[in-house]
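Lab notes, practical 5.
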Amino acid sequence: MSLLAIRGIYENGVVHPLEPLPDICQSEVIITFLVDEPTNDFETLRQRYITAAIERADYQKLRDKTYSGTIPDCPGVVAFRETLTECQRELVSVLRDWILVKRRRGVPIPVIDGVDLNEAENG
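Output from the prediction step:
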């Protein structure tokens, strides 16, 4: 037996490889999760907000076979990428930046699933 490491994304109980797989029909796997640990209350609240917002995301496969992603509750949060997985990752990145810009400018952020970032400290 030998060990082969391949990067992937775990989503809803399914692992999506990010690299080409060798000819393997079945294999035992060990999944290691990398988790960003919140550093303060705002970080915890922001992570809850991002999770809630991404659950509402809308993804479309475009005519050119690429993907677009939007979050209806967050106007202007849009991502375009070659694969669905890349699009999902980009959408999270865009959402993080969107939150930062809204907070710095004092622009209200929509409340999603009861998570309100508008009054949160240390943002």
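Observations recorded by the TA: The helical segments are 41-55, 84-105. The longest helix spans residues 84-105.
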